[in-house]
Amino acid sequence: MALIIAASAPVALAATSVSVFATAPEDPRAVVVRAVGDGRADDSAAIQGAIDAAAAKEGGGLVFLPSGRYRISKTIFLWPGVRVFGVGATRPLILLADKAPGFQRGLANMVIFAGAKPDPSRRVPFPPPGSVPFNKDIADANSGTFYSAMSNIDFKIGRGNPAATAIRFHAAQHAYLSHMMFDIGSGLAGLYQVGNEAEDLHFKGGRYGILTEKTSPAWGFVLLDSTFEGQRDAAIREHEAGLTLVNVALRDTPVGIEIDRGYGDWLWGKDVRFENVSKAAIVISNETSVYTQVGFENATAVNTPMFVRFRDSGKTAPGLGAAYRVTSFSHGLTLPGLGQMGVTKTLMKAEAVATSPESRAPAIRALPPVSEWTDVRALGAKGDNATDDTAVLQHAINSHRVLYFPTGFYVVTDTLRLRPDSVLIGLHPSLTQIVLPDHTPGYQGVGAPKALILSAAGGDNIVSGLGLNTGGVNPRATALLWTSGERSMVNDVKFQGGHGTNLYDGTRLNPYNANATADADPARRWAGQYPSLWVTDGGGGTFANLWSPSTYASSGIYVSDTQTPGHVYQASVEHHVRTEISLNRVAHWELLAPQTEEEAGEGEDTVSLEIRDSHDILVANYHAYRVTRTRRPASAAARIYNSHDIRFRNVAVNAESGVGLCDENGCATFLRLSKYPYENAIQDVTSGLEVRERQFAVLDLPVVPPPVAPSVFPAGARLEKLADGFYSAGGGAVDAAGTLYFTDRRHQRIYSWSDARKLSIVRDNALDPVSLAIDGTGNLLVLSSDGRDGNVYSFKPGSPDTEVTVIAPTSVVDHPGAATMLPVNWWNNGEFQDQFDVKTDQFTTLAEMFARDMALPKSKEYVSPDGSLALPVYRVFQMGPPDFRGLRFSDALDTYGFTTAKPGQRVFLTNSSENKTYSGLVGTHGAITDLKPFANRGGESVATDGEGRVYVANGQVFVHAPDGRELGRVDIPERPLQLLFGGPDKQTLFVLTHHALYAIRRP
């Protein structure tokens, strides 16, 4: 690891409790809390009752909490889709009294964002800890918890409550917190667990301001315009939260941001200020992991002698005097250029400054005061999902600067044209929608884009808190055509259609037909409209907390023909057929914490990010993933055409997807591994170069890419392509003669390769073959994905196609001399339950979880016909119908292939959630113990040769000595996925990619 310090923030924010909703907006659907509010009476039941009443209506609701001091004595549960707003001349305060019963030990939350209301018919496998009193029937907020929010409410924790936290905030799209002060006092933290986005939060006192681990949907959390002051241990303690900070100040605390031992994070900060931070502004752990990606731009430090301290190595990046400015800092896997693999580096550019710089403007501008809002219903709009409100709304826009839309569905049939100063405000983008009916005249046929809402060219417009729905049969429609200027803003806007879309009656739209291959209505064509958000013709501004998943749009966010600066802060752009985010002839834009998701139905060919003919673009904390259900390979997440001065900072490309899974023990949200993430992070179409690293901290794309020097090990080795044309090859095994067998699951075929016979088809009627193994007498064992728990069958290669032996699972017994089939790659990250141990004050590390789970023996097994080979039965999770349409997940079904070993032998395995390769001792019944880290490379496969060298597939093939030293690399034209030694002398390294079979032959 290189450490380079070169000489070459932000902001002191005022933490004041000012009510941003000085009066309550008029809304017929809102529930008003009726409580005492004097700080003495127990108002828990009244607040919970109002939330329950709002949630009784399908799709959630609004709750208004008037000014007052509300003492609570137990946990308040915020149900999905419910938003609670403080209203009145002063912000309401939710108070936990001194020494409140239940808040002294362990973990205790004042408010929990919940994933569902209790259902007596279903058990919750992993209820969140910390409810007072504990309630086992509460489901944690998860990757499907949408729209929940709290705003304009303060929290205070009284003395003698060391276990207390204000809010457990573990939710997904369009969940947010804003305009809040947390007087944590004796408590543990202001926020325990985080998700999605927050604005204008101010934390005072406590052990921590924020204490968190990975968000429930596994993508990042954005915090804007906030402060931390006086925390006893650290302002923020976290890991893998994907933390993005913009305009945040941390002061009067020992540590600014502490990443937990054994973990990394995708941590990005812009305009962050550290003041009077005595030990270190940032503590970085797990510093050699590719999952540790830390970057800052324009950070300022005052009375902060140590900018960075590395927990594991003890290395430091010290500050430069009493006050200094860090122009840029980065730590993590750093790529020298396209087509090259990365090396861990620490880079810092800093300079001493004489005085502290002035505060910058907030990232999120304030909305006009409620006193200036004009209610569109008072002007005649109905919002009843039936009346055409076009004329009323356009007249309202023409006549009033600030318009407020109470909850309702406002039907329009023509473009709403904003004046240069127009502001449109709603409070719930699911319950407050502007809707374009299908088949609207003027939006049909071929022609230029026609907007649902059109901003003013160069204007100062704001659109906030609304849902925009262009239907599914309006090919010329674009929901928001934005040409406003740099000060304009789009915030908390949902582009409806497809996933997460609630209808007028509160029911959730199902965007699929029975096979998830199209909409249930064939007239509603996927990718049949213009982009949902189209910024063009000099448009720019701030775009925050956006959700754009309409499958009917060709792209979720499309920016074209502009050099006006644009700032994107947290955008979930998902479920499009062509591209998620596209930039075309664009300059001076930054995308901070963009997240994309590709579903199995519509996302098989989708490009996550496309940049064309553009320059001066920053993409930071970029998370692009394909869901676990995906079954088709895709080449690259991002594609670049004729562009330069593109800066990528903190990139995560994977197929770790949160999915709701059920088994006989109940249902929960799990994050599972897929075999089909994007093969590469980036593909530069112009140069033909690609980026194989899928987790990295730094990559710059200059005008001329640096030269690429391919690597081959050992010298003189020959790389051959043996066969190609496969859809998704994998699951290979080698027999005693060195013949390779492998599957092509999509085409339900099993192939073999030998130097004598070349490529042969062994079976072309195999049922859903996933992975293979071969027993001592040459029987081929096939793991199939068919059935509720999968199946295993066997046959003899060369036998009649009608001969198939189904192997039933049996209780485990000892098999002296038998070998065990083990997945060669694993995903083990424990996201489905909290890892924080209040007794030890530590989070269980990834390595500890991996070791713990791997050591567990299995209770059942599949045994080969000759008894020489056993496959442990791994727990299978099921999603979807119990037939071929359903999805099955398990450690065995998810792996790229098996390795076999006998009890007592040491075997090499990879854990993709750490990107590490381990060795471990094989025990009985599938247990693996004595795990030892071997290499900081891992992910797809690992194999060993006869001389003990270890070959690891991770973007390329990396070769290690038996002691772990890296010896060299073999570059493969396609991403290597499974490695196996075979051939007559077992010296040929077979390399399976999705589409081809290669061989590395040593001299």
Quick structural overview:
The protein folds into 3 domains: 2-352, 3 Solenoid (Pectate Lyase C-like); 372-701, Pectate Lyase C-like (3 Solenoid); 718-1001, TolB, C-terminal domain (Neuraminidase), CATH 2.120.10. Helices cover 3% and strands 47% of the residues. It has 4 helices and 82 strands.
Number of DSSP-assigned strands: 82
**Mass-distribution shape:** globular
The CATH superfamily of the largest domain turns out to be: Single-stranded right-handed beta-helix, Pectin lyase-like
Distance from N terminus to C terminus (CA atoms, Å) equals 33 Å
Q: State Rg.
A: 28 Å
Overall structural class, as computed from helix and strand content, comes to mainly beta
The proportion of strand residues reads over 45%
**Average pLDDT rating:** 93
In the CATH hierarchy, the architecture of the largest domain is 3 Solenoid
Write down the CATH topology of the largest domain.
Pectate Lyase C-like
Weakly predicted, low-confidence segments: 1-14, 657-672
| Count of individual domains | 3
Description:
This protein is mostly beta strands and 1003 residues long. It has three domains: 2-352, Single-stranded right-handed beta-helix, Pectin lyase-like (Pectate Lyase C-like), CATH 2.160.20; 372-701, Single-stranded right-handed beta-helix, Pectin lyase-like (Pectate Lyase C-like, 3 Solenoid), CATH 2.160.20.10; 718-1001, Neuraminidase (6 Propeller), CATH 2.120.10.30. Helix content is 3%, strand content 47%. It has a 26-stranded mixed β-sheet that branches. The chain has a 20-stranded mixed β-sheet that branches. Residues 1-14 and 657-672 have low confidence and may be disordered.
